[in-house]
Amino acid sequence: MAAEVRTTCPYCGVGCGVLAKVAADGSVSVRGDPDHPANAGKLCSKGSALGETLGLDGRLLSPEIGGRAAGWDEALDLVAKKFSDTIAAHGPDSVGFYVSGQLLTEDYYVANKLMKGFIGCGNIDTNSRLCMASSVAGHRRAFGEDIVPGTYEDFEEADLVVLVGSNTAWCHPVLYQRLLAARTKRGTRIAVVDPRRTATGEDCDLFLPIRPGTDVLLFNGLLAHLVRRGALDADYIAAHTNGFDAATTLAAADAPTVARVAEGCGLDPADVRRLYDWFAATPRTVTVYSQGVNQSAHGTDKVNAIINCHLATGRIGKPGMGPFSVTGQPNAMGGREVGGLANQLAAHMGFEDSAAIDRVGRFWNAPAVARKPGLKAVDLFEAAADGRVRALWIMGTNPAVSMPDAARVRAALKACDFVVVSDVVRTDTTRFADVLLPAAGWGEKDGTVTNSERRISRQRPFAPLPGDVRPDWWIITEVARRMGFAEAFDYATPAAIFREHAALSAFENDGARLFDIGGLADIDDDDYAGFQPMHWPLRAGRGARADRLAGDGKFPTPDGRARFVAVRQEGPALPVDGAFPIALTTGRIRDQWHTMTRTGLVPRLMAHAPEPAIEINPADAAAIGLREGDLARVESRYGSGRAKVRLTDAQRIGQAFLPMHWSGRFAANAAAGPLSTPVTDPFSGQPELKHVPVRIARE
Ligand code: SF4
Question: For FRET with 347, which of 3, 39, 574, 583 sits at 20 to 30 Å CA-CA?
């Protein structure tokens, strides 16, 4: 009888452990890993259907050049030559990589090393830019490094959990189940702040249907309230922070009274006061935020407005307390660890520190380490559209559908001289590839991922590589070798890459940098094979978590203190107007993942929502002349699409919701990406996907 293989779910950032078993007929069954600390045996609907997504339908099985099948040598030689020639003719800034939170950390590491250390350019960005870049920027502003000081246990040890812009019940289901179980046990209060009454908002103790984009006002009001009530931790503020006066002065001016906050946020003043009173009176409070906060032109300010309240009360880095960003993808955090964002260098070091640039260059023995940040996602495709980027390699993601203003992205892919796409299946994006490279998928890949609580787990293979498919790390290193960097990319296994990644995190690190997994730098192949899920930091050695991040009140800033950031409420980048009067928010639905290339194959997952529906308030529908089930045309300044109308009072008047998943692959339906605005947050570069002015009419 086949043994079960211990691996990790490839979907959301909860990072559940999965036991997978291949039957004699080749079918795969999965169950939750009872020993994985993230999920203790549970899986959600998407995770439990993983075994049904593994057929070869639509799989890319061999390299293709210009639409014809090719061998690996020919394809890799061509990619290396085109990139080398482009760099020689137009400089290193003329090329770019657009990668994915679906990549494993080892894949990400070699892609980042090739671009930032050997090509000498920062132009590697990721679809995680669309997901949690504002949290990264907010963490760096407040903490000096992109750290998540909490753990999932904190959800279970809190007395109050405030969920902001997070439909946790659908988007992080197993974590939500942990929270509900804790609530049953200890009576945890749950407050939900969200413009939509989602499944999470249906079952909570306090629901605040906030006007989209006004979160800074709500949390500035909370900070001002904490000052007025004297509900501060003065000792913590004095010993461990800077900037309290500036932040509280601006917060008090911005949000002087509960009534002003309620008016600005479109909330009942009694609800605002209740939230503030609960927060003030509850030491064990965790504030959870995800895409509703991040996907905004002011997402970074929103993150800092939340963190300010935790710093003011000293509720950070302690059991049951803290600000907590939940990531959307399985390896958004792993990508952050290795520098998979254009504005990060590697191992959570940044370009603003020239010593860090030199250090990374020394460690890699790099001939041309990048000295400035590269282009973030939206700017990268803009540069491809106008000819500044002439060779682009897209790995494991579908920007032709998922990027905002996707029509412009498609035009950019058409205009770009040379486009490489490595992926598991054909997508809307693979149509634009000059060279198509077949990559290994879940069940075939071998490496590590890091979940939202920065726990590193293994993805292990249980199926052979079909056809001519190869792992991403292999593809990248083969191109690097052909570009003349053979010595630096001489890895035989993902374990060898992982060891180097761990060693870099500890290189010349006297403990000031918190991302340190140096205890794993000498892990041997057997231990890597049997690796048990662990949090970082791991500087004390394998199996032992050295300390709770920020538990001692020390932060990786030059003076070791956290920083309050003075922020002010600003409106959305593109307000609604007479031409586009409805504010559209976008998001996930329970049983689908991204552009549905995998979950769309499973009938029982499709049954939950067989087609895209635009959810609007009955009052708006009546004004437009729409009824339940009508086909509506949804139009923004950037694109249009069609969707069935679903009437719900869970939607505020003047707002609508559209799932992000559907694309041309399934029907000529509305897809959120093509409609969305490419306006971005000035600090994080994250697009404002949660506030898109649209008009809706009967089709
Ligand atoms: Fe996978 Fe997330 Fe569901 Fe866990 S909660 S099984 S990680 S999709």
Answer: 39
- Are 538 and 516 within 8 A, CB to CB? yes
For ligand 1, the distance from its centroid to the CA atom of residue 212, given in whole angstroms, is 27
Fold: same for 5-53 and 64-129+332-491: no
How much is the pLDDT for 540?
Answer: 54
Residue 230 has a CB neighbour count (10 Å cut-off) of 8
Which residue lies with its CA nearest to atom 2 of ligand 1?
Answer: 12
pLDDT digits (tens, 9 = 90+) for 412-471: 999 999 999 999 999 889 999 999 999 999 999 999 999 999 999 999 999 999 999 999
Mutation probe of ligand 1 site: the residue of 8, 30, 39, 590 with most atoms within 8 A of C-beta: 39
CATH class of the 5-53 domain in this structure: alpha beta
pLDDT given at position 594: 73
Q: Which CATH architecture has domain 133-326?
A: 3-Layer(aba) Sandwich (3.40)
Mean pLDDT, residues 355-369 taken together: 96
- Residue 669 — very low, low, confident or very high, per pLDDT cuts 50/70/90? very low
Instruction: From residue 491, give the alpha-carbon distance in Å to each of 103, 477, 480, 499.
Output: 17, 8, 11, 11
Q: Which residues line ligand 1 (CB under 6 A)?
A: 9, 11-12, 14-16, 39, 43-44, 46-47, 172-174
Q: Does domain 64-129+332-491 have CATH number 3.40.50.740?
A: yes
Looking from the CA of residue 18, the nearest atom of ligand 1 is 6
Burial class (CB in 10 A: 0-12, 13-18, 19+), 68: exposed
CA–centroid distance, 667 to ligand 1, in Å, is: 27
Interface pTM, i.e. ipTM? 1.00
CA of 8, closest atom in ligand 1: 7
- Ligand 1 center–CA 12 separation, angstroms: 5
Instruction: Write down the domain spans for the chain.
Output: 5-53, 64-129+332-491, 133-326, 582-698
CA-CA distance, 48 to 43, in Å (whole number)? 6
Residue to substitute in 8, 12, 170, 598 for testing ligand 1 pocket (most ligand atoms within 8 angstroms of CB): 12
Query: And the tokens for 360?
Result: 């990374």
Whether pLDDT at 617 is above 80:
yes
Which residues, including other chains, have CB under 8 Å from residue 546's CB and lie 6 or more apart? 519, 537, 538, 539, 540
Atom of ligand 1 nearest to the CA of 451: 7
User: One-letter amino acid identity for 416?
Assistant: C
Query: Ligand 1 center to residue 468 CA distance, Å?
Result: 29
CATH number of 582-698: 2.40.40.20
Nearest CA to ligand 1 atom 4: 16
Mean pLDDT value of segment 635-648: 89
